[in-house]
Amino acid sequence: MSSEAGTIKLFFREAIARAVREEMAGDSRVIVLGQDVGAFGGSYKEFLGLYDQFGAARVRDTPVAEAAMVGLGIGAAASGYRPIVSITYMDFLMLSLDPLVNYAAKARFKTGGQITAPFVVKTTAGAKGQGVAHSQCLEAWLMGVPGLVVVAPSNAADAYGLMKSALRHDGPVVFVDHKRLFPSAGEVPAAETFTPIGQAVVRRPGEHVTIATHGYMVRTAMQSAERLARDGVSCEIIDLRTLAPLDIDTVARSVARTGALVTLEEGQLTCGVGAEVAFRAQEAVGPVRVARVGALPAPVSSNPVLEAAALPDAARVIQAVRRVLA
Amino acid sequence: MSSEAGTIKLFFREAIARAVREEMAGDSRVIVLGQDVGAFGGSYKEFLGLYDQFGAARVRDTPVAEAAMVGLGIGAAASGYRPIVSITYMDFLMLSLDPLVNYAAKARFKTGGQITAPFVVKTTAGAKGQGVAHSQCLEAWLMGVPGLVVVAPSNAADAYGLMKSALRHDGPVVFVDHKRLFPSAGEVPAAETFTPIGQAVVRRPGEHVTIATHGYMVRTAMQSAERLARDGVSCEIIDLRTLAPLDIDTVARSVARTGALVTLEEGQLTCGVGAEVAFRAQEAVGPVRVARVGALPAPVSSNPVLEAAALPDAARVIQAVRRVLA
Amino acid sequence: MDPLATLKSMLLIRRFEAALNTRPDHGFQLYSSGAEAVAVGVCAALRPGDQLLSSGRSIGPALARGIDPRLVMAELLGKTAGPARGKGGRGHLAKPDQGFFGAHPVVAGNISIAAGAALAAQLEAKGRMVACIFGDGASGAGALHETLNIAALWRLPLLLVCDNNGLSVSTPREAALAPARLSDLAAPFGVPAASVDGTDVEAVQRQTETFAVRVRAGDGPAFLECRSERFFSHSTATRETRSGAVMRGVLERCPIRKYAAKLQAVDTLDAAGVARIEAETEAVVAEALAFADASPYPDPAEALRDVV
Amino acid sequence: MDPLATLKSMLLIRRFEAALNTRPDHGFQLYSSGAEAVAVGVCAALRPGDQLLSSGRSIGPALARGIDPRLVMAELLGKTAGPARGKGGRGHLAKPDQGFFGAHPVVAGNISIAAGAALAAQLEAKGRMVACIFGDGASGAGALHETLNIAALWRLPLLLVCDNNGLSVSTPREAALAPARLSDLAAPFGVPAASVDGTDVEAVQRQTETFAVRVRAGDGPAFLECRSERFFSHSTATRETRSGAVMRGVLERCPIRKYAAKLQAVDTLDAAGVARIEAETEAVVAEALAFADASPYPDPAEALRDVV
Ligand SMILES: Cc1ncc(C[n+]2csc(CCOP(=O)(O)OP(=O)(O)O)c2C)c(N)n1
Ligand SMILES: Cc1ncc(C[n+]2csc(CCOP(=O)(O)OP(=O)(O)O)c2C)c(N)n1
Ligand SMILES: [Mg+2]
Ligand SMILES: [Mg+2]
Question: What residues in D contact B246, CB-CB < 8 Å?
Fold first, then answer.
């Protein structure tokens, strides 16, 4: 128990492990498939302890075969199980898109409800010195796929609560975390909690501008808001948390008050999360001053100088805020 | 020679075949890889005659192995050849995204210009009674990938001219045509012509509203404009032709005049082409009345009733136009 | 399965497709004619609790698995009386509650899904197995390699059935697959494999039963190659590339005529019996068509149902 | 390649990685130590016009191919003196103009690319060949199956080299790959294959030369499995999972010590010779490090160069 009553401090990875552990303990149909998820405990130790507790039949190390891994998860899910398939980095999810998008996302529709695939693809997006093919953020691709739910926690509590909800959802869910979130810890409710799918949350109330973002970028937004506050600029920060279905109402309510919107994502801007959020928010409240912040239109190098140059940071968010408020 | 001086009437498929034939004749490095592209001539006969003219070494039937097919094309391209890889339907391009996006799109960047992959992936998007896994339009996914050029002809002349330009481009190009374009014929310049990459074109001048679209939907836009004209509503229709890089200037110039924008695509709206066009156009000219038209947020069934219900049509475009002009 | 039922099951597929062919306006279809013995022979060895998956060429598998021809016809013609209310249609037939997990028209796309269903069967440990029918063309896809490896490692109760009709659209199997026999693909993984005449329904059934014993026993997957024929062009929308001479040879290998002749040779069946079976089958097929014709198309609102 | 050059080439890799290891701040690295004989043995049989591709574990392959250690060090440390001006870095080393087409860190991602380079070599018909080094873990990926099949069908001049160090991160090869020998994977496609001791540089070179003859002759691809060792954890950022006892056994199989001992046994080399080679190698490595240290990081503007 930590200072805050009713919460415990957990590392991001521990929050994920706890959610999976609770669900596996409560539901024997929950299984884990992934590379090095067994005794090794996952690339970020986010599955540590599950293998010892639940055994090799329910926590399975797979070969490096992302396409079949997801196909197996779907087949097992459609047969009554609730697998989590771990795809280490989101870049490798490209190898799994055929089963995920051509089969799982459409199974319920194409069978008239006879088949559903309640499973979770857990994958890690974002850059952390890993280079052009290990740093991508592809959430926007998945948001446009009818039938998929996409969640993206920005902290330990939601990593726990969203994984819990994902494992109870009656269809395919892609759980997108972020490399730079793993070193962090946060307060997580001591009692069992579910973060509702489809609900964004206001992380910081403000008056002058709304910043809509998700995942690790919520922190970048918070830093930006701190600095801007010193100059009397008040930012309202919305953590989308679920990208599909998108909780546009929460964004729209905020934008209706502030009259200005900055979207922030680590991925590419073109056909990205921000483009969608900006369009739908204005559909709801009418034209507002708006700006998008995202990565430069280029691959993200492992080179520290180039990675830093490519990724959005507080300085760029602050610039964008000043631009829309100018 | 047809009525129009200097043009010949070609079926859409013939226009593609002509472009490839001319480029193969002029450059021995141009080769074709694909399923049933040889003696069979391609699913839509778009490669008919090439096998007889250029032989089995340069026109190669491949196994059903979309991932390796594109990988081979990239490797050959990076070694000095200029392959076209035919991926029958865009849905199957999911199987090729790892080599296309993780390798080809980043090769030039990650090698500091040492390696480039000048090749063309030719694929067919859109619905024509083929069902949920054979009807998708994924152009928006590719538009957000730095390093990729994406072109999408709406008629025979551009199918010819864009394929010619794609085969001369010094990097990876995805050439996206559409199932419902193949039955059609059109006037194509008799003389060798190149449709410049990165240039949209105004298909129909108008005053009250700008409709920005691409591919087959250009026809739906034209029909809509015809009908609206009867009620005195004048639509300017822009055929984007190239989706990456996007020619936003042409759109912006038009919108600056009309003050209203309707985007139209057959694919999903969420994080789609229209979201990007709408954002960038308003970035350029400021807020305008805008609406997006696309498929319903659902898979597209082969069922004629459900396919028709899911796809955008003139009626919906007209509604959207009236909405923005209301 | 008794011989007459086996013959009838094959004949049903053939006549069903002939009847379906009288409704071209709905759109193209992929026929199983020429490969009836593969689906029927495999299904003869399956039990109610087992699951069957197939490629988009799924009329044979669906009917052989015992799905009501009326429902299959309705689904293929996009009518609401189909199991998916006409939303799936050709290439997506499914009736999992009756052991037909379903078809999937992405080539090789059902192979890893089938392994997942087999994983579920293994975890349930009720002796259930899963069979997946795919084509020779699908055998060149990476999905087969990844799935064979995992199924072998985990000893999944999975029977992989390669319906080798010698063609992938227009591409001859020899031009698309390097192995001498497609069943050789299983060898590196230590997966038992066999190649049988896919026009010999008894051979298919016998080999499936042999493999089913070890698959159910938990000894891991097996691979069965069946050399069948494709009596029609790839789909009703695809041009035929084989010469008349070639086609005559193809049609020679009719699994139904072959089996009927055999049954008559051993006096299990006489001309009258054949006539009776044909008449019964025609009646069933006619009823299926009438049933489908009578069923309405879905309401456009169905386009947004069962999405998430 | 003469024995001393071979020994030196292996030692260079070992000492280069030790030197690189003194610059941990730049980020993690993947080391080839323990598998030097694979890269060196394979490259000994390659010619200038040939191309080599590798997985992300590419220091051994790059140096064995003869890429200037100063350039490799600079690239791995993100400096502009690298062949990619520091943009590629670890996992993306490339110097195609010197026959190192490059590394690719997506597991199995380079296999089909290599086949494409081999297709180009075949079309050029100048007797060039392409070699692609990938790991045991990569052998479970569908890309290998699809590529083996096409390369066999088209008789591409491609040598597939599986550097089997027995591990994929923490997963033992036995838990990830069903085949008894990974070289068995080539058999169904009629592709000649062999498994050799990947810590025996002469065995690797000999078998590569044997295969190279037929590959260059246009007889199609070949598959070479080399059983090597991984002396360090998967990457400098990954925790080691092997016990001290196991590691002692692993380190026993040092390809360099083994080869040096052999050369001394046959008097090709004496203690003084060893000392001289070590000193020369240390000098080369020290210079490489100094060269890289002296080179600047790229300008941030480089982030937008060479994109399209
Ligand atoms: C991944 C993928 N690529 C291409 C196609 C187009 N296609 C549909 S069926 C088919 C032929 C498959 O041949 P085979 O596996 O032998 O099955 P058959 O049609 O002979 O029953 C092809 C290439 C597809 N549906 N999916
Ligand atoms: C497609 C893909 N999946 C997962 C990874 C993460 N990963 C990097 S190296 C590696 C191990 C590969 O093992 P192996 O092929 O034996 O090569 P080794 O590291 O042993 O040299 C894995 C799983 C990756 N880079 N690419
Ligand atoms: Mg076939
Ligand atoms: Mg290994």
Answer: none
Q: What is the pTM of this model?
A: 0.98
Task: Provide the CA C251 distance to its chain's centre, in angstroms.
Answer: 19
Q: Which atom of ligand 1 is nearest to the CA of C134?
A: 15
β-sheet bridge partners, residue D158: D130
Q: What is the dihedral of CA D183, D185, D186, D188, to 10 degrees?
A: 140
- Amino acid A166 reads A
Nearest residue on chain C to D183, judged by CA atoms?
A: C188
Q: What is the pLDDT along chain A (326 residues), one digit of tens a residue?
A: 445 679 999 999 999 999 999 999 999 999 999 999 999 999 999 999 999 999 999 999 999 999 999 999 999 999 999 999 999 999 999 999 999 999 999 999 999 999 999 999 999 999 999 999 999 999 999 999 999 999 999 999 999 999 999 999 999 999 999 999 999 999 999 999 999 999 999 999 999 999 999 999 999 999 999 999 999 999 999 999 999 999 999 999 999 999 999 999 999 999 999 999 999 999 999 999 999 999 999 999 999 999 999 999 999 999 999 999 99
Residues 6+ apart with CB under 8 A from C98: C65, C66, C67
Q: How far A215 CA sits from the closest chain B CA (Å)? A: 18
User: Residue C138 to residues A133, C108, C135: CA-CA distances in angstroms?
Assistant: 28, 5, 5
Contacts of D251 (CB under 8 A, 6+ apart): D34, D229, D231
Distances (CA, A) of C12 to A206, A281, C69, C226: 70, 56, 9, 20
Report angle CA A232, A235, A237 to the nearest 5 degrees: 160
A110 contacts C106? CB cut-off 8 A: no
With beta carbons under 8 A apart, name residues in chain C contacting B309. Answer: 300-303
* 3 state SS for B284-312: HHCCCEEEEECCCCCCCCCCHHHHHHHCC
B92 lines ligand 1 (CB under 6 A): yes
Q: For helices B156-168 and B12-26, give the axis angle rounded to 10 degrees.
A: 30
The tokens for A13 are 């990875």
Amino acid, res. C189: F
- Per residue in B9-34, pLDDT (tens digit) is 999 999 999 999 999 999 999 999 99
Give the three-class secondary structure for B118.
coil
Burial class (CB in 10 A: 0-12, 13-18, 19+), D247: middle
Which positions of A are catalytic?
134
Contact B71, D143 (CB under 8 A): yes
Smallest CA-to-CA distance from A278 within A268, A288, A270 is with: A288
B256 DSSP assignment: H
**Residue A235, H or E segment:** strand A235-239
Residue C99, SS3? coil
| φ, ψ at C8 (rounded to 5°) | -60, -40
Give the distance (Å) from ligand 4 centre to CA of residue D165: 5
- Interface ipTM: 0.98
Rounded-to-integer distance, Cα B167 and Cα B173, Å? 8
Contact, B128 vs B86, CB < 8 A?
A: no
Contact D198, D39 (CB under 8 A): no
Q: Do D116 and B76 touch (CB under 8 A)?
A: yes
- Asked if B71's CB is within 8 angstroms of D116's CB, the reply is yes
| For helices D201-216 and D255-265, angle between their N-to-C axes, nearest 10 degrees | 100
What's the pLDDT tens digit per position in B197-256?
999 999 999 999 999 999 999 999 999 999 999 999 999 999 999 999 999 999 999 999
Q: How many residues does the structure list for chain B? A: 326
Mean pLDDT computed over D185-214: 98
- In the numeric block, which tokens belong to residue C7? 């013959």
Instruction: State the CB neighbour count (10 A cutoff) for residue A182.
Output: 19
Burial class (CB in 10 A: 0-12, 13-18, 19+), C151: buried
